[in-house]
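Two entries, shown back to back:
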Amino acid sequence: MARTRLTAEERQEQLLRAALTAFSAGGYSGTTTDQVARLAGVSQPYVIRIFGTKQQLFLDTVRRAGDRIEQRFRRAAAEEPTLASLGAAYDDLLAERELITVLLHGFTASADPSIGPVVRDCFGRIYRTVRELTGAGEDEARGFLAEGMLLTCLGAMRVVGPDAVPREPWMIELLGPDKA
């Protein structure tokens, strides 16, 4: 049986999926390009040939995660341009644990002068997208993103999501009646 060769775009997508898995598990510092290569079934030099550096691979992975959120928000707003609709879309994204975890790793690596601007731009794009799609004011958008960050942290701790741990009283209080 003949193997079909992946296009450069398909191979890059394969590497970014592997990077999402690897970086979500080990963070920026705890992940190697060799781990990404093994997950993708390619050689480590190939990863470097495509992305140049581990840092560039991480940045592209964080950008991809931000793009995924923005795309999902745009689809939700096409049906109903409200904060509630975007919130429901984000609830769905919380099930994609690797996505939210890699964003958290990006936030924690933001002290690095090469990583910080990219992560801040990603977050700023999401903020601007929320305002653009819903017409929310600054305070409304701030509250929406604050709740989203809370849910992101709780999702990473497995308080929310498809594999959530049994809820303790503090979790129920923190989530409130709508999410508990």
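entry 2 starts here
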Amino acid sequence: MSATLGPPAPLDLQAGRPPVLRADGAADPVGWAHHHRTEVRQILARHGSVLVRGLGLRDQAVTAAVMQRLTSGGLTGEREPFAPRTRLVDGLQSATPWPASQQMCLHNELSYVPDPPAFMFFACLAAPARGGATPVGDGAAVLQALPPALVARFEREGWLLVRHYNDDIGASWAEAFGTGDRGAVEQYCRANGIEFAWDPDGGLRTRQRRRAIVRHPVDGRPCWFNQVAFLSEWALDPDVREYLVELHGPDGLPFTTRFGEGEPIGEDVVDLINGAYTAHTLREPWQAGDLLVVDNIRTAHGRDAYEGDRTVVVGMADPVRM
């Protein structure tokens, strides 16, 4: 056994939950991450996600250092968020703002940018009183579960993300693009295949067509990789959607998704996709100090509704050009 890696940590495999890697009694979480990096990567290659339990993470700086030890190039920032996160320390970010009472359906992070993060890290610094798990789902299994005709259409057309940046909900265009300079935003859009148009009142409308199915860059397996259901208008709370339609019209929603050639995606299709996710979801209740590592290309993640205080911080790493 290599002295560099140390002995392998116990891996707990149970149906219905992600693999749980035991790091019980790790007095030095950063050192543990350094010594077990290869082991964690091997588990990710086999299973697509792993929950590391026993690191006792409480401090933001230590948590960021643990995540960085498990990456190839350190933690990276976020581009084009649909809701602004809070930047913390050393590349660490807050979880996406989302009402505690609402489920966040499964999705692959930043699937609409050309170089999404290969890995996602979620660390629980304080566990909620009830609920609040971060479920995960295998994109290869979800792809197999969807109707072949629907898969063929998405394979052929891809999907279209339509956004309207305004002051009512979600990130402003300045927050999403990290600048208040219109010229810089236009340059970014042209460079990344994003159609754009400015409203007379200063709002911004964008459309970007992306692939819905990709091959994993390491093993080549086809994966359902997108945010078709998550960024659909049908994912909005019904009362919120009704209010926004009344205020801005059906074409003025802050975000929605369409088939790649522009046809609307109905609520029935979104329900079908979410049903496939549900059938292939794994979850484990958070314990304070846990770290969940996710292969973002292969594995979707979400968030359960919860009660009580919940502090989960996020890291993104190793962008991969898709």
